[in-house]
Design brief:
There is one protein chain. By secondary structure, this protein is an alpha/beta fold. Helices cover 32% and strands 34% of the residues. The protein has a 5-stranded mixed sheet with strand order 4-1-5-12-6. The longest helix is centred in the last third of the chain and has 22 residues.
Length: 282
């Protein structure tokens, strides 16, 4: 059975395509092709704007897809989030002109500009503000001060916000790329198995990206101290060297630990240390 997959065009597309490629799934088609051919997995693929994906997956037009959490919340879409991929993290923030007082502003009626109608409405109502919401269609940050008192917009670095002489006064929510599924598709045993298989591949790739394989040798009397230093997915692999003149040790180690770990291993007597990338880890 062919799974219907919808992919986002634009900013988050690059990392999603790289993830699929690392899973062994290649998409063939030029940048103007909204229906690329998939090889390596039984998929029917379509590219759409990220804003439209949650609603279409909810409706069952597509079985699975990738979308930002911000648009899932904005569309109030009832989809199943299978995994937070943590790609392209952004914050949805409240911004006002840099020389305005946020506390004073909350005492009067505000004109608010945002692409996020539902997210903004929920937030503003929660604060109990008196407001009029203007739906923007891009370039939201240029509205203040002439056309709006404040904006609710997404940002990853805050550079555009500062460039337009705005300041962040609150964070509405955080968002990143989610792998999502239609609830009814998950109830179909055949589709569920295919989706689980794809999710396993993704998890293996994500695990592999987070770790490297460390290999090293050590003398017989150093093996205990070396093994005690090594974090591993379960236990390090230990084998005898030729003529039993020491041990060969290898372990899958998180990349973030390497900087502190290598000096300790050398001090404990590890030699011939090799660090190798891991494509997948299960």
């Amino acid at each position: 059975m062919t799974l219907k997959l919808v992919l986002p065009k634009g900013r988050i597309n690059t990392k999603v395509l790289k993830l699929l490629s690392d899973c062994g799934i290649e998409l063939i088609g030029d940048e103007r092709n909204y229906r690329p051919k998939a090889y390596g997995f039984d998929l029917e693929v379509k590219l759409l704007k990220s804003q439209n994906i949650p609603s279409l997956v909810e409706l069952g037009q597509h079985d699975i897809g990738f979308a930002g959490l911000d648009w899932i919340k904005e569309r109030r879409s009832e989809v199943v989030i299978l995994r937070d991929l943590e790609f392209d993290p952004v914050k949805i923030v409240t911004c006002i002109p840099e020389d305005w007082d946020w506390q004073e502003m909350q005492k009067r009626k505000l004109i608010v500009a945002s692409e996020y109608k539902n997210v903004s409405t929920d937030y503003l109502n929660r604060l109990g503000l008196d407001y009029q919401l203007l739906r923007s269609y891009g370039a939201t940050e240029v509205f203040p001060p002439e056309d709006a008192d404040m904006v609710i917009d997404n940002t990853s670095t805050g550079t555009t916000i500062r460039a337009n002489r705005l300041k962040i006064v609150d964070t509405v929510m955080t968002s990143s790329t989610q792998f999502i599924a239609n609830a009814e598709a998950l109830e179909d045993p055949t589709k569920r198995q295919q989706i689980d298989d794809l999710l396993t591949l993704m998890q293996a790739v994500m695990n592999g990206r987070d770790r490297v394989l460390l290999e090293m040798n050590c003398a017989n009397d150093q093996i205990t101290s070396i093994v005690e230093l090594l974090p591993a997915m379960r236990y390090p692999t230990v084998s005898r060297l030729y003529q039993e003149k020491g041990f060969a040790v290898k372990a899958a180690v998180q990349k973030s630990q390497i900087k502190d770990l290598l000096p300790k291993l050398i001090a404990a007597g590890a030699t011939d240390i090799l660090e190798t990338p891991i494509r997948k880890a299960i």
